[in-house]
Specification:
Keywords: Signal. This protein is α/β, with parallel strands linked by helices and about 625 residues long. About 25% of the residues lie in helices and about 35% in strands. The protein has twelve helices and 29 strands. Strands 1, 2, 3, 4, 5, 6, 7, 8, 9, 10, 11, 12, 13 and 14 form a 14-stranded mixed beta sheet that branches. Helix 2 packs across helix 6 (about 260-275). The longest helix is centred in the C-terminal third of the chain and has 18 residues, at about 410-425. The protein is globular and about 75 Å long.
């Protein structure tokens, strides 16, 4: 849905109904709320989604699932659109793990570091802060166990903070299955150390070897590249009748590791069953249905939507996130979210009416036990101050080849889908002011609308509590991305006082095009985020940058006279002070960064350009 470009702006135009009309609309919705066919829709769509196999961003399988979502939304009377964005795609080329001279099957986590490590190993169990007591892991390979409550990104953060050379992760799945995933959001710079995953049985054998030979060294090597993929969020919009200017977003990610029947084809099935259920039913609020892409690589699709529509987030009153809505028979379920009393009441009533049982936890508690994140697409909405809740169902086959349709209990998926539909329906009778409860501070990011490519950029961040008071002493991280979600620079802002913080993007960090700025205030009590965008033009490189390319030779005309030019890999040659020849072949398919400093009209300017290979 494009709120900025003009398309679908009609969904936010005011429409008034009489009291009789509003009551009739809700009565019609109630009459259709228990349609038994929805269970069949959810299960069949789950199966169809899983049969496509792995659906990484930009893949043929992902494109086909996007088409299925688009067709389902359109058939239900939603105006549809795709919002495309670029994202780094981690391509594992080779992972080798050797313990006591024997090779052990292993796979690299996405966005972990690359290279070779040969070192001793230290076992820290789950790898929480307390698990490191009395253990020095400096320069060592750190062995950690999968723990559903403590996310692997947090485990790796501990390894890096304590000087570990690599992370070796023992999966929790049966049959020695290796669990995959990411250990760093794709839109951030990659991790500085490798992180690899092994099966549970191999992990036990490794521990036995270490017990017999405590000084044994482990050799680990990862070869991988990052390539440019084009992902797409699939958006459907239905205008509200009573509150057309207020929006409820219902979303599920459709990308997956392997078939992803549980994670997240169950969410896709529930989403399409909701779309089918609202066919012809008037809704009080404007409803946005979203099929998020690139969740598995860092919640990138939902973050793209939130940042793209940052100026209209005040109109979003609720977010319903459909993550792993069902799994095996009897699998424990979790529901977590924000604190609006009326939203909580509606959701709990919908669950009870459908016999859906889940443990309720506040989002703050989930963040604390997971190590600081909400590991699903509710996070960008939560951190922007939007009320909402997320589903989650536990499975030992998470992120393995055995996440297949046969493991999904049809009755559980039916209950979950019906409960979610009833929750959406119940929210139609809630007044907007009853959802206007803010859990996190507001983050306002101020940056120039336009600047010269490569110029130093001053960014100001203002942090205010939900009551409007300035927030003091919060660590504020600033991330600068270009080409949508390719990281160019990050750092920590300086506190100025009075809830104000300042960050300077150094000269030479950016290229021509749009720079997206995300400011994140992260404490144990909350995570809050704000966004800005800067259009960059001019600079010293005369050619506009390409999103990606298959070539590894580049010719760059330069404005002014080149003083210095360097590349992160390969070679660069300066011709007559005004032309650069970049040879990036030595980098293979990995990105290469050119940095050039030139004298233009009596002043020196600096600019950098990243050359990315298009994903295969």
């Amino acid at each position: 849905m494009s709120w900025k470009g003009g398309a679908h702006l009609d969904v936010l135009q005011d429409m008034n109904l009489t009291t009789i009309g509003r009551c009739a609309a809700l009565a019609a919705a109630l009459a259709l709320s228990a349609a038994p066919a929805q269970a069949d829709v959810a299960y069949e769509e789950m199966r169809a989604c899983a049969q496509l196999g792995a659906k990484p961003p930009g893949s043929a399988a992902g494109h086909e699932q996007a088409r299925r979502l688009e067709r389902g939304f359109h058939a239900a009377g939603f105006t549809t659109a795709r919002e495309r964005f670029h994202v780094p795609l981690f391509q594992e080329e080779r992972t080798q793990l050797t313990v006591a001279g024997a090779s052990v099957p292993a796979e690299s986590f996405a966005y972990g570091g690359t290279g070779r490590v040969r070192a001793g190993i230290v076992d820290v169990g789950v790898g929480r802060s307390a698990d490191y007591a009395g253990k020095d892991v400096t320069g060592k390979i750190v062995l950690v166990d999968r723990d559903e409550a403590f996310h692997r990104t947090s485990q790796l953060a501990q390894v890096i903070a304590r000087g570990g050379a690599a992370m070796l992760y023992v999966s929790g799945s049966p049959d020695n299955l290796i669990q995959e995933g990411t250990v760093r959001f794709a839109q951030l710079p990659p991790a500085p150390v490798p992180a690899v995953s092994v099966g549970a049985q191999d992990g036990a054998a490794l521990r036995a070897t270490l017990a017999a030979n405590p000084g044994a060294e482990v050799a680990l090597e990862v070869e991988a590249s990052r390539e440019d993929a084009v992902a797409a969020n699939v958006i459907g919009v239905r205008r509200g009748t009573t509150h057309p200017g207020k929006v409820i977003v219902v979303g599920a990610h459709y990308d997956s590791w392997h078939a992803g029947a549980i994670d997240n084809c169950t969410g896709v099935g529930s989403l399409l069953s909701i779309a089918d259920a609202v066919r012809g039913v008037p809704l009080a609020y404007t409803v946005v249905l979203a099929g998020w892409d690139a969740e598995e690589v860092g919640l990138t699709g939902s973050y793209d939507w939130v940042a793209r529509h940052a100026d209209r987030l005040g109109d979003v009153v609720a977010n319903i996130n459909l993550e792993m809505t069902a799994a095996e028979t009897g699998a424990p379920a979790l529901r977590f979210g924000t604190s609006a009393p009326k939203l909580t009441q509606v959701v709990q009533q919908a669950a009870a009416a459908n016999g859906y049982v889940a443990t309720d936890l506040p989002a703050t508690v989930v963040r604390q036990i997971s190590g600081g994140i909400l590991p699903t697409d509710i996070q960008p909405f939560y951190s922007a101050g939007v009320q909402g809740f997320s589903t989650f169902t536990s499975t030992p086959f998470y992120h393995t080849p055995q996440d297949v349709p046969e493991r999904v209990d049809a009755a559980s998926l039916s209950r979950a889908s019906a409960y979610l539909w009833d929750a959406l329906l119940g929210l139609q009778s809630v007044a907007p002011e009853e959802l206007a409860v803010r859990d996190v501070p507001s983050v306002t990011v101020r940056a120039p609308e336009r600047a010269e490519a490569g110029a130093e950029l001053a960014v100001e961040v203002e942090l205010r509590s939900p009551t409007g008071a300035p927030v003091l002493g919060a660590p504020v991280r600033v991330l600068v991305d270009q080409n949508d979600h390719w990281a160019r620079h990050e750092g920590v802002a300086t506190e100025l006082g009075g809830g104000r913080y300042r960050f300077v993007v150094p000269a030479g960090a950016t290229d021509a095009g749009e720079a997206r700025i995300t400011a994140t205030a992260d404490t144990p009590a909350f995570i809050a985020e704000g966004y800005a965008a800067v259009e960059l033009g001019g600079g010293v490189l005369l050619r506009r940058p390409d999103a990606c390319d298959g070539a590894r030779w580049f010719v760059e005309p330069v404005r002014g006279h080149v003083v210095e030019a360097t590349v992160s890999a390969g070679k660069v040659r300066v011709v007559a002070g005004r032309l650069l020849l970049v040879d990036a072949r030595a980098a293979g398919r990995d990105p290469v960064v050119l940095r050039v400093r030139a004298r233009v009209g009596g002043r020196e300017l600096v600019q950098s350009r990243e050359y990315r290979v298009c994903a295969r």
